[in-house]
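Here is one chain, start to finish.
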Amino acid sequence: MRIFVFYIMSLFTTNIFRGLGRVALLVLVVSSATFVRAQESADKILVIVGKNRIILQSELETELAQARQMNPSLGDSEKCLMLQQMIIRKMLVEQAERDSVLVSEDDVEGTLDNRVRYFMQMYGSKEKLEQLSGKSIYQMKEENRETVKEQMIAEKMQNQVLENSKITPAEVEAFFKKIPVDSLPFFPASVELGQIVIDPPVSNEMLDFAHKRLEELRDKIVKDGASFETVAAYSDDPGSRDNGGRYDGITRNGPWAPEFIAATFKLQNGEISPIFKTKFGYHIIQMINRKGDEADVRHILIKPSLTSVDYQKALNTLDSIRKLLVSGKMTFQEAVGKFSTDEAAKRTGGMLAEPTTGNTNLDVTKLDAGMLLVIDSLKPGEFSPAHIFMTDQHEKSCRIVYMRSRTAPHKANTVEDYSRIQEVALAQKKQQKMLTWVKNKLPTFYLKIAPEYRDCPSLKAWRTNNENTK
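Its structure:
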């Protein structure tokens, strides 16, 4: 049985069970080059679904190329499975149209903005992203707008189909017993970890110093005539400092601090904002070009510096929290909710999770060196001493780490891996529910599949269910 392999593969090759979002994430960059090459060699209609929804050979090749970016071992044999999922996506969109399931243009724009921003951060700048793709940000967004919109509609429709999908412990146990022993995966050592993070408080003196520093930089521009782009070299924002402080495509619904959005959309072209404060520090913005609810700006950030005294205050607070935890006077979840300054951690009860799957069982080999050093001597149920660490944003903060569980390398079993097995079993149940939905809906859809794909194992049953495939 290949269910474990299939499930992991489906996370990035299908539009079911998170795959839709993962594949869509790569569209903006990978497809720019791959899609053009594919169109030149094989622009052929493979499938027609419903009124006028088509799947091209080039689109199939593009999705396969995108999936290979995440799993290079994927071969042409996966084309049938991928085509099946692309057909299901078209069916979901067709059904969404019948049921008036829509997504707003603002939501589509926000998704495009987020994906562009993700890749700008990945490659370092807007210019590098445009150079890699061979297209402007505007072109990338416009060329992928309909694709992203379709994916969002399909996902929304899929969520309606799969809502209320649950699995019982008995079903999990039955699922596991059906897996041949020689097909059980071997899991590396793993841990379940939580952390309580407290960012050191900034002293009033350092706040005043940062404000005055930004006043000096603003005066250089406004009073002395220096260019904003040149002065931005002094910014504490690594995301824009080396690009003259520039950020393009700012929108009101983007993932920016509310104060940043408010200051941006008060400006006219060429204007420079007053100094304003966010949780990141003090800012000024220059409007480069405003087009309705989208803006290109330059930006300077000055962060207040932290002293050793500030860090010690945070560590002292964490020491007090640790005493409450060790004595049992407060639970870990209660402490996270009351003390943690990491808002994202509060939503997960402080537990760390794999970003792509949400799984809290973390592969020890994938932990950073700093975390490995912290947990080396921790036992389940124990808390680390308070310490300074480097965040994902490459900034120093303070934390204590909680070890909820630890497992040695082992073959999958329901004692140590219940949550993993439950996740896979639920995914299989959802997959079956999705395929049942497809089977029930097929007679109501026009469906035509190119001859060379009609014998795909995943599509054979559809031939007998729908004469339009012949």
